[in-house]
Amino acid sequence: MPDIPLVPALWRFPAHPASVREARHAVAQALPQDLRRCLADDLGLLTSELVTNAIRHGTSQRDERVELVLWPADGHYWLAVSDPGTATGHRAAREADGESGRGLLLVDRLAAAWAVLPRDLRGTSVVAGLPLRE
Questions:
Q1: What residue stretches are annotated with the Histidine kinase/HSP90-like ATPase domain (predicted)?
Q2: What pLDDT score does 42 carry?
């Protein structure tokens, strides 16, 4: 009989800046206790950056939602952050003393792999994976 895989964790948050902290907390709490020490900081940073980008660039109305899915697979913990927008996730040029523009650079540094994927009906998802290391 095959092993039954873990069911991915799923959350939907309002397109509001307060959702960034709530999303980061939800993801940290969803990690197994033995992995929190080694993954919580990096996964929290990924969550913050991707949810912030989704709210800023992927939503246009307050009643829209940002969706998060977290799941383990292939030696990684994967995070998908989805929004109804059509942004492509380009790394924008930034000024050295600017207050923004570093989000996807951080994602690129932290994640073993990441991509922006179109959703079937509407919107995009940014999927990023962190390797399991203890």
A1: 13-116
A2: 94
